[in-house]
Amino acid sequence: MPSAITTVFSTHELLESILLQVDLRTLLTSAQRVNRTWHDLIRSSLPLQRTLFFAPQDDIQKNTEYTYNPLLTNAFPTFFQSFPGPAAGRPKKLNLNSLEMVLRPDKQTAYLRAEASWRTMLTRQPPVRSLLAVRVTSSMAGDKEEMEWLEVPEGELRMGRVFELVMSRKVVSFQPITHIHLFWNPGAEMRAFQGSYMRVGDELRRAMVEADALLYTYHVVQCSVRWEDTAEMTLQSDLARGYGKIDL
Known about the structure:
The chain is an alpha+beta fold. It has 2 domains: 4-52, no CATH class; 77-243, no CATH class. It has 12 helices and 6 strands. A hairpin with a 2-residue loop joins strand 3 and strand 4. The chain is globular and about 70 Å long. The N and C termini lie far apart (58 Å). 22% of the residues are buried.
């Protein structure tokens, strides 16, 4: 006669309820290695896949509370900086040197392997469905504004896509005198912050409010600056090569 414990762990509904209480990292790694039953259940259960940020939660309202993926915010902190608010000055720009894969070269191979789980993880729940790139170039001739709605495959932004965009000089380039920011829920953040650093016209500002996420670049062109790749541009290229072919 099977014991009560055996009965619980062999009943998918009960096992699923237990696993939903497990911390995210354990659920992603060691729990799936217990046995084939646990592995298959975690991979097939929609509630568990939503908990792991692999499957999207249903969108509720436009102004809903968002839950950001804690594994990603820990591994890629520069991509998930909080908006500082009016009293704290301008937000910090993207800094590739702060990534764990840069600080810990021994982990770089694991991060950049093709099957790395972080690539397919959603950045938040409910997911980001629209991503806007805004680039402002400032020179003696004035400011030039450019706007592009970036593709979000299958309508759900996953971390692999974010990484690819930042690693591609087609979208982001860490040139001298350049400020690059990644904003989540930019409409709410912009309403809370009226910093002069974000120099955009009314049309772009309206688009930024509507976007779920925003890649904002402000670049100053100066004739006196000799053009050379910055250390961060070199790092950007190195990480892109390690990651593999980036198709945008």
